[in-house]
């Protein structure tokens, strides 16, 4: 009761609202500043070929990050999402020669299934998602390693079913990135216009109140994890296409940048605050940062440190302390 | 219904019995069964040579898992272990006599490696406690930072440890017992004492059991939480140095796989991820089970990657089973 | 004045504009047992929390042995020799009895950061010996019964004796609610023994117990101290009257607006409903437009009953029928689907969705009236939200305001609007609907209950006070220990007296 009282008081005074607004706008400011700085260093940074290169790297990170956004909005997290995308590349590599284009549909459905499964365990057993998904991370990684005998599988036969993802251009821009951006926009529009569009946010803000108003928080949670799984599979399609192969750890290195994209975009790790458009901004920041760091001469070895610092720093800025009771 | 019915309904008396059995007796029984099974299934399992290699394999995992136990008892988690081990191993090797630079600090390098871990622990604890970020999130970030620092130090080629007396710590043995195992026993002993006799050890149980009550009692919880993270970081630092001693190099991937195995070991031993229950002693049993399982399965020819999958399942099952009786219709678990 | 060991002068405490303690004065004399009574929300708990250093007062002062003191933490209060036995148990179940008794204040039990177990257990044994308890210091608290835990709490409270230079003041907050029979007698013996070297503040809702054990009794009402009586000058009836007494009650509760429900169809029929370890064989029928009030103290089972009726908790046997059709009620989702609503006691957590706007909260349960297909009809939603804000006089800057910024009373109106806006609503369960509200907001809630009834909605009411229950209900069930003890017809002009109800409650 007391823990709730004080932040309320500051809310009443309204002195935090300017700060809140600034923080909300911060990701976009950071993105613009980054682009400006990098453009100053590399005058042709915003040139067509460079932008194309940037966007090619965007799709898998953005897809993973959008998926994760669904879960983070509910206040949970799915640590297994990158591993699931690796698994999906292995499945694609194994199945494309056998069943061709059907695999392109089947694999995302399977990762949808793994996501739903995670959601069911979290919702039914009522255990924290970070532990369940940590376990799931081991499980699916083990499955991927076993299926692939721990080696990269080249895709040659049946590649044309996914080749278009990398090769196709619309107005000179890679179709994979355009699709990913379109999916982010569709999700954002859905959140805005559906009569129950704010349900995921409500889940993160006030799960009990949502349930006590007759909404099935169990189904909502399962659906959020399902979406995360589905998007991990889509990211896997892009990865497999661009790498001409499936590999049991192919997507693993995207875990940190994708989580970093979600949080630096302004999605609160405590849930309820944010959305796919924020994630899009976050993913763009990460992509520009990658290129920008090397442009200003920072060795690639420092990339991990940057991601780590971004995750911690962005969480500090976006976390809603007034909602926190005991933090474990 | 009389009032005494309501009063005597202290929840889950039977459950406690079950937990006591599986929490302490169960894992031990499982360990004995596993040893017996593999001794029969593989002629090489119960040999002196394999025993020694089992001990070496157990040592590092045990140290990591012991450290992890301290934060898990709080109900928190430390995902930075692998990154911390990587940084520690490289700091250690680069400060000891090595084939990269002229440094030759000898035993001081060991201390520097361990302290690297302690510093990471301090950073984890302070960020988690004072900025109120969930511990798994903090340590996800600092783990990446640890890997990053290690990558920077690594510089493309693994530096080799050239200090002979230190190398002997990694390869040598004393009366047939690997020296690494002796280090692990020392760490275990200290950890048991810390857990039993110090405030950080005892308050850890109380914080994990009921943090709200601890707050009301006026104890400076933050201090003991941070200290617990320092203990975990220190143990990871020790483990990083031990791994470098064992392999003779410092490496970015030196901690690869330990996080997962250590969490599984802690949970299998009977320390609950919700906090408040368990202990370092149980972790010894859990780590032994994992080590025997890993070693035995390889001896009888099981694909090692299946084990990774099984460990993942074990973690999920362990939390689901221990939390099953706490389920309610109206409950928000993120 | 030397005889006064603890005194509180003109103490004041507000929570977000709601006055919880209003100019309270209170004193405890040497070796005295002081009773403290009052209804829920009278300010007892707030006073105790200030005395134990959990809350800081907004005004007034606390004197210990005539010296002004200020308790910033629980430790300060304990160091001044004030020991608390909390109502909600304050033990860490995962560690031993000895550790709990000295949690954070181990003294000689810890030297140089190292636990000396032998010493700590001896110290704990000494505390347990004071109350002649056979509990072992090394036992884990989780292995103890609730009654035994209460004894450990007492031993813990007594440990302030050694820490303070003055004789201790022991505060017992509703210590008898989980005790019975022999355990109760043991507690009273202990209190008699304690008073030889300590002073005691005894808080309870069982008036007979308070009168039996206390030398003087303070009566709190609505955050004010309304009376002090010596034991021999007062009886339980008078205490009760002092505790609830209010002027012009029927007007306050809009009793004139209460309509007869005779001949109305039965909406909800509950038969033989039982929940293991909570309540047993509860049956009643709720007619359209009727208010069924359920009275009972904490532990009577009425809270669980109300949650079972909303599907928030499972029941073990019996039936719940709506319009003659059985309901499995496996979750609140099913309850809402058939038109059962619930206004929870935990308003901030289960009632409003903090962080979401007033408008979003209003349509959280049923957005069907403002939807076009699966999409939100934004213009209609805005108009409807404004209509509810105006109709229920919700004080808010606008419909987009975060509901967390509203006062408790206005939040409660938002919760009401959430259910009223649903055309499906048939039955509304009100669990302490006026808790923590100021008088004006309470009156509004009463008026809305009348309006609900006029619309033909059935209401199950768990009120904060007996007076509320009596004034608002058509039928009253009195529960004790999970069993319905009495039923009262409370139609207009046929209202029972509070004392009639009390009989079945304790």
Automatic annotation (TrEMBL), chain B:
Alphabetical keyword list: Cell inner membrane, Cell membrane, Membrane, Transmembrane, Transmembrane helix, Transport
Membrane topology: Multi-pass membrane protein
InterPro entries: ABC_transp_permease
Transmembrane intervals: 21-42, 54-74, 81-99, 105-123, 135-156, 176-194, 224-245, 257-277, 284-302, 308-326
Subcellular location: Cell membrane
Protein's name in the database: ABC transporter permease
Organism: Microterricola pindariensis
From TrEMBL, chain C:
Keywords of the record: ATP-binding, Nucleotide-binding, Repeat, Transport
Keyword Transport: yes
Signal sequence extent: none
Superkingdom of the source species: Bacteria
Alphabetical list of Gene3D superfamilies matching this protein: P-loop containing nucleotide triphosphate hydrolases
Record-linked InterPro entries: AAA+_ATPase (IPR003593), ABC_carbohydrate_import_ATPase (IPR050107), ABC_transporter-like_ATP-bd (IPR003439), ABC_transporter-like_CS (IPR017871), P-loop_NTPase (IPR027417)
Name listed for the protein in its UniProt record: ABC transporter domain-containing protein
Domain ABC transporter: 6-247, 261-506
């Amino acid at each position: 009761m007391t823990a709730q009282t004080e932040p309320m008081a500051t809310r009443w005074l309204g002195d935090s609202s300017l700060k809140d607004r600034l923080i909300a706008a911060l990701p976009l400011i950071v993105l613009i500043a980054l682009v400006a700085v990098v453009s100053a260093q590399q005058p042709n940074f915003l040139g067509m070929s460079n932008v194309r290169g940037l966007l090619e790297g965007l799709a898998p990170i953005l897809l993973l990050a959008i998926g994760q956004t669904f879960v983070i909005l509910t206040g949970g997290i799915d640590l297994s999402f990158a591993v699931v995308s690796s698994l999906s590349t292995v499945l694609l590599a194994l199945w494309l020669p056998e069943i061709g284009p059907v695999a392109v549909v089947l694999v995302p459905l399977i990762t949808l299934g793994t996501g739903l499964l995670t959601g069911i365990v979290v919702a039914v057993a009522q255990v924290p998602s970070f532990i369940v998904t940590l376990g799931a991370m081991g499980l699916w990684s083990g499955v991927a390693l076993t299926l692939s005998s721990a080696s990269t599988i080249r895709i040659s036969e049946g590649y044309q079913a996914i080749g278009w993802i990398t090769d196709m251009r619309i107005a000179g821009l890679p179709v994979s990135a355009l699709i990913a951006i379109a999916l982010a926009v569709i999700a954002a529009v859905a959140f805005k216009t559906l009569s129950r569009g704010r349900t995921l946010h409500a889940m993160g803000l006030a799960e009990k109140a949502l349930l006590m108003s007759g909404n099935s928080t169990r189904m909502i949670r399962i659906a959020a994890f399902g979406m995360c799984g589905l998007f991990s599979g889509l990211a896997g399609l892009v990865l497999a296409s661009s790498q001409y192969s499936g590999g049991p750890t192919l997507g693993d290195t995207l875990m940190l940048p994708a989580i970093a994209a979600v949080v630096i975009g302004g999605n609160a790790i405590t849930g309820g605050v944010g959305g796919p458009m924020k994630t899009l901004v976050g993913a763009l920041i990460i992509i520009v940062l990658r290129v920008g760091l090397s442009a200003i001469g920072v060795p690639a070895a420092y990339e991990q440190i940057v991601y780590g610092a971004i995750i911690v720093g962005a969480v500090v800025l976006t976390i809603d302390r007034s909602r926190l009771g005991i933090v474990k | 219904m009389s009032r005494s019915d309501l009063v005597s309904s202290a929840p889950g008396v039977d459950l406690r019995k079950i937990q006591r059995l599986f929490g302490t007796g169960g894992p031990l029984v499982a360990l004995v069964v596993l040893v017996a099974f593999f001794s029969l299934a593989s002629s090489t399992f119960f040999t002196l040579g394999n025993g020694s290699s089992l001990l070496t394999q157990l040592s590092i995992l045990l140290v990591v898992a012991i450290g992890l136990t301290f934060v898990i008892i709080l109900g928190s988690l430390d995902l930075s272990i692998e990154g911390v081990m990587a940084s520690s191993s490289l700091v250690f090797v680069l400060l000891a006599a090595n084939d990269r630079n002229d440094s030759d600090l000898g035993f001081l390098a060991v201390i520097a490696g361990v302290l690297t871990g302690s510093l990471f622990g301090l950073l984890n604890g302070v960020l988690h406690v004072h900025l109120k970020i969930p511990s798994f999130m903090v340590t996800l970030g600092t783990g990446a930072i640890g890997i990053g620092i290690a990558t920077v130090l690594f510089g493309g080629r693994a530096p080799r440890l050239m200090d002979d007396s230190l190398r002997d710590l990694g390869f040598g043995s004393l009366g047939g017992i690997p020296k690494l195992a002796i280090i692990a026993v020392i760490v275990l002993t200290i950890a048991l004492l810390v857990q039993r006799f110090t405030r950080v050890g005892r308050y850890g149980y109380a914080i994990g059991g009921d943090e709200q009550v601890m707050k009301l009692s006026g104890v400076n919880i933050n201090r003991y939480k941070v200290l617990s993270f320092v203990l975990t970081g220190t143990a990871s630092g020790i483990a990083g140095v031990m791994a470098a001693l064992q392999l003779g190099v410092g490496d970015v991937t030196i901690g690869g796989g330990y996080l997962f195995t250590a969490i599984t070991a802690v949970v299998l031993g009977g320390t609950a991820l919700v906090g408040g229950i368990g202990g370092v002693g149980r972790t010894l049993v859990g780590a032994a089970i994992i080590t025997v399982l890993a070693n035995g399965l390889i001896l009888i020819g099981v694909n090692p990657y299946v084990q990774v999958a099984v460990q993942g399942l074990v973690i999920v099952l362990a939390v689901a089973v221990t939390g099953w009786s706490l389920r309610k219709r109206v409950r928000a678990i993120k | 004045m030397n005889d006064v060991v603890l005194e509180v002068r003109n103490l004041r405490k507000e929570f977000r504009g709601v006055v919880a303690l209003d100019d309270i004065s209170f004193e405890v004399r040497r070796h005295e047992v002081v009773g403290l009574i009052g209804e829920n929300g009278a300010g007892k708990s707030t006073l105790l929390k200030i005395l134990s250093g959990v809350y800081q007062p907004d005004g007034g002062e606390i004197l210990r042995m005539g010296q002004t003191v200020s308790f910033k933490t629980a430790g300060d209060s304990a160091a001044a020799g004030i020991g608390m036995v909390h109502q909600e148990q304050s033990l860490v179940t995962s560690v031993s009895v000895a550790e709990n008794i000295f949690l954070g204040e181990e003294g000689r039990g810890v030297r140089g950061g190292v636990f000396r177990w032998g010493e700590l257990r001896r110290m704990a044994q000494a505390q347990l010996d004071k109350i002649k308890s056979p509990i072992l210091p090394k036992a884990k608290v989780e292995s103890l019964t609730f009654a035994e835990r209460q004894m450990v709490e007492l031993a813990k409270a007594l440990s302030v004796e050694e820490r303070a230079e003055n004789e201790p003041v022991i505060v017992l907050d509703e210590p008898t609610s989980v005790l019975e029979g022999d355990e109760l007698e043991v507690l009273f013996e202990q209190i008699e023994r304690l008073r030889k070297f300590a002073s005691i503040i005894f808080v309870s809702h069982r008036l007979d117990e308070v009168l039996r054990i206390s030398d003087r009794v303070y009566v709190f009402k609505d955050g004010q101290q309304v009376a002090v009586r010596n034991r021999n000058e007062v009886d339980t009836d008078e205490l009760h009257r002092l505790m609830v007494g209010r002027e012009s009650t029927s007007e306050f509760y809009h009793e004139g607006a209460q309509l007869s429900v005779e001949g109305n169809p039965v909406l909800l029929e509950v038969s033989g409903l039982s929940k293991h370890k909570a309540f047993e064989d509860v049956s009643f029928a709720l007619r359209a437009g009727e208010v069924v009030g359920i009275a009972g103290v904490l532990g009577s089972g009425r809270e669980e009953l109300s949650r079972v009726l909303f599907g928030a908790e499972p029941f073990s046997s019996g039936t719940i029928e709506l319009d003659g059709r059985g309901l499995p009620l496996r979750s609140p989702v099913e309850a809402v689907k058939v038109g059962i609503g619930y206004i929870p006691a935990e308003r901030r957590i289960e009632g409003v969705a903090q962080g979401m706007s007033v408008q979003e909260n209003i349509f959280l349960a049923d957005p069907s009236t403002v939807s076009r297909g699966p999409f939100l009809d934004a213009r209609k939603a805005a108009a409807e939200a404004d209509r509810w804000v105006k109709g229920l006089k919700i004080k808010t800057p606008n419909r987009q305001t975060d509901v967390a910024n509203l006062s408790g009373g206005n939040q409660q109106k938002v919760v009401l609007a959430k259910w009223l806006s649903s055309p499906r609503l048939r039955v509304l369960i009100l669990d302490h609907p006026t808790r923590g509200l100021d008088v004006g907001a309470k009156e509004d809630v009463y008026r809305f209950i009348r309006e609900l009834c006029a619309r033909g909605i059935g209401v199950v009411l768990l009120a904060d006070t007996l007076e509320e229950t009596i004034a608002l209900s058509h039928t009253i069930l009195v529960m004790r220990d999970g069993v319905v003890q009495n039923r009262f017809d409370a139609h207009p002009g046929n209202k029972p007296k509070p004392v009639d109800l009390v009989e079945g409650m304790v």
